[in-house]
């Protein structure tokens, strides 16, 4: 029986730029990672390792494959948008019809599509 998501894994050929994206722009925190015998990182949100980064293999062709994107619940829309704008990082921001949820879509340095979902009550 599934009780919820555990983690996502992304592959990168440039660990530094990938960590910069997920830590400095998105707001995940680097944390402990067991010795798995290859380079990479585990990134945390509220004490849970939710993103694993592999930095030991080439990115396969067809980056997304059958998975279209990964989505994270987020806080701090105004601050997040300001970080993206300050860096000139391309994104698409929209407010979902009906629920009013703010959705910020972007791509990480390796091409993975990332969605950040913010409460409708957040303001720009």
UniProtKB/TrEMBL annotation:
One of its GO terms (molecular function) is dioxygenase activity. SUPFAM superfamilies: Glyoxalase/Bleomycin resistance protein/Dihydroxybiphenyl dioxygenase. It comes from the Bacteria. Keywords: Dioxygenase, Oxidoreductase. Residues 4-119 form the VOC domain. Gene3D superfamilies: 2,3-Dihydroxybiphenyl 1,2-Dioxygenase, domain 1 (3.10.180.10). Coiled coil: none annotated. InterPro entries: Glyas_Bleomycin-R_OHBP_Dase (IPR029068), Glyas_Fos-R_dOase_dom (IPR004360), VOC_core (IPR037523). This is Dioxygenase.
């Amino acid at each position: 029986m599934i009780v919820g998501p555990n983690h996502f894994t992304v592959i990168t050929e440039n660990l530094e730029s990938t960590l910069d994206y997920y830590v400095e722009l998105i707001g995940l925190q680097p944390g402990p990672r067991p010795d798995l015998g290859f380079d990479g990182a585990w990134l945390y949100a509220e004490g849970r390792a939710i993103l694993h980064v592999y930095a030991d293999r080439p990115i396969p062709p067809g980056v997304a494959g059958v998975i279209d994107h990964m989505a994270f619940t987020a806080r701090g829309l105004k601050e997040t948008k300001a970080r993206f704008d300050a860096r000139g990082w391309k994104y698409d921001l929209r407010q979902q019809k009906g629920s009013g949820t703010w959705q910020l879509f972007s791509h990480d340095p390796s091409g993975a599509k990332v969605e950040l979902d913010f409460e409708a009550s957040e303001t720009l």
